[in-house]
Structures are given as C-alpha cells and as structure tokens.
Amino acid sequence: MNAVQTYRYLQPSALRTAGLDLQTCGGPAANPRFFAGFLTAPAAAAAGLLAVAEVARTRYYQPVNPASLDPVVTGSRGRLRFESFSGCCGVYARMDVLPAGLDGDISGHGTTNVDVNPPLREALARVGGIEPLHVAVGPEDLTVSTMDGSVVERKVPLPGRWLRGFAEVHVLTAGFEPRAEIAAAEAAAFLRRLPAAGDRSVLWAVPAGRTLRLTSRPVPGAVCLAGAGRLAALRGVLRHARTLRVYGPAARAGSPAVPSTWELDTGALRLSLTLSPEPYRGFSGEGAALAALAGDDVVDDAELVGALLNWDPTIDVAALADAAALPDERVRAALAQLGTAGRVGYDVADGAYFHRVMPYDAGRVERDNPRLVGARALVERGAVERDGENATVRTDAETYRVRRHPNGAYSCTCRWWARHRGQRGPCRHALAVSMVAAPVEVLS
Fold it and tell me: pTM for the whole thing?
C-alpha cells in the first residue's frame, strides 16, 4: 500500500551555472535550506547521488519499469545523508557526505524528499574532474507556505514498505560488526568477479589476505552476499574510493542467510548498500523490530527519548539514557519505536544511531505490524498460559506450544515458525508469550 504525501517544490532540481540546486520539501519550514556551499569531492558526490537515485528506481527482484521515487535527504550538524530503498525494498542505499566533503555551513536541520529528475541525473552524469560543485539544499531566500506563485505541487507516492524498511534496517544493522576492509584496487577486482545481475544465489565472502574470496557455505568470519548483482550501484563510486568495508552479524557454520552492508569510503563521503538476506526478501517484512515494540513502556519511553534528540550526527545511547533516566535497553527499545516513524537510523561506520524526521507518524506502528496487533489481542483475551519457561497459547481454532530456549529465543508449533524458523522475527504466539513473561526480550 502506498502512502501518498504532497510535496511542494519551488522548481525542478537542476545543475545551474552556480552549481547543483537540489529542490527539497518538508522539514521544520516549507522548502527549508539545510546547506549552501561547495562539495569538496564533486565527481564522487555526483556519482554517489546517482547511485542512491538509481537504487530508488530499481527493482532487483522481478525487474519492472523504473519507479518514480525520490531519495530522502537529512541535514544535521556537519553532515548530509541521502537515503533510498529499491523498488523491491531489498536494497537500502545511503550516501553520507562527511564534514571533509562540505565547504559550507549546515544552516538548518531536518529531513526532506529530494527531487532527482531525469534532467538532473543527466547533469550529474556529466560532472567530472575538478569542476566545482555547489549545492543549495532548498531555495536560497524564499519560504513557500502556499501554492501561490511558481511553486510546483507534486504528489510523490512513497510506499509504506519504505517506512517499514527504515524501521527494520536500523534494528538489524545495529547488531553488525566490521568484518573486512580491503583497498579500492582489490575491491574493483572482487566486484568484477561477482555473478552477473539477476543471479539469486546466496554466497559468503571471507577475508583472504588483502582481498575477499567467495564460498557457498558460511564459516566463522564470513559475510553473507545474497544476490551479488545488487552491488552494481557501487561501481560508479569505486574509482573515487579508498577502501571497501563490509559489515554483518557474526556467522558460523550452518548460519542462515543474513543481511550485510557494503560501504565505499572516499574520505569525503561514504556510499553504502545494505542487502537483505535473500534477493526475494524485502526489509519491510523482516520483523526485527517486533521484540522492541512489544514492551509495555515503549511508547512512553519513545515520547521521552524523542524529545531529547537534538540532531547530533550520532546519538550517544549512554548519554541519552542518563538524560532520560532510563536503562540502556529501554532507550534502545524506544529508538526502535522511533524508527517505525522514521525518526532514527543507524550508521554502521560510526556504530551509532542518527536522527532524522520523515513525513509519517508513529500511529502507523499498529497497522504496519499485524503480528504485534495479533499478539496484543492474544494477551488481552488471556490466551497465554505460562508453564515455567514454556507456554500454551490457545486461539479459537488451534492450541500452540511456545518454548523459551536457554539463549532467550522462542520456538513455536505454529506454521509461521515452521516455515521461517525464527528468521523473519517472532510469530504472534511467541510475541504474546514474551509480553506476559517480561518487558522487552530478544526474540529470534
């Protein structure tokens, strides 16, 4: 289901004589101006923005005609972030322009939707060498509050899957660790060896000296690479990069397919692609945020924590916990709740959350997570009967047994668990058991 939002642009984005003029919408004021200045790595920045826009236009699984989806841009202290999801929601792209890449001031903060139209893509493709690239994010001296004058109204369909994807990705990547780092030359050779676009195999990349080697089975230290052709968007920035870094959860022999992040670093900016565990799986259905959303206090905690966010490039969880007088785990659960409204993301390079605001409200949590709704209904009906570490859950038609394992994970006798084996988040029965057992438990 698409959530159609109305955006107002002063004019189409364009590459003008004075530089790149990105028209934006939303934020704390109509058409806010987040940044005005030069990008110190113009060719790399142009290639990175093209990559983020290309991911937004691409459906990697069962390709169809390009979508018309505009990347999201966030301006905060000393940093610009451009983000998008693929049409299939299985690839999350982000370009972070770092302080070293900005020759100007972040004069405001907020999150908007950026118009990257065909003429702008063509103009960006022509940027090269040391040509100066000036970016004005939003009109320079005009505030638009109505449809009068030359304001262009556009209705941009942002799929609800994007919001659910943002919520899932930040929870999943928060558990990632750096797994490998190789120089750009080795990265180029590695990417050339990958299967062609359209290949749906699940491979594993293992550090091997100064490069990476591929294997068909997981081993300790390996990083999952599902649908290797989905890394194609990195190639445009590769010639500007210094290193390729790879992030993922810990793997062991017999590990199931898991997501991973692949990041090119030029020094002035970072372009990263986060891949879903399998090519046909979109992040919107992973269920990683469900456990954090199940706590009794999470909504109130999220309201408190949200009021304390202040647009720092990274969020210090410990400092936030002190300010809110809450334990770290409750702050992390609150951040997961805020993530369902698009208010926070996670940067694997910094190992920290960051603040953003998107044009959605937290009221979508219920309808975006039917398993959460179903679990709460089971608890309200008294359908959960605890038996030590295990439980019986009775519905109108069936009776299920839920078992809690020593590592804190749950299993269930329902068809959902039999099909996914905990790889798509908890079923509603396990989630209900966790709600009556203790606040905010880790489920798999």
Answer: 0.81
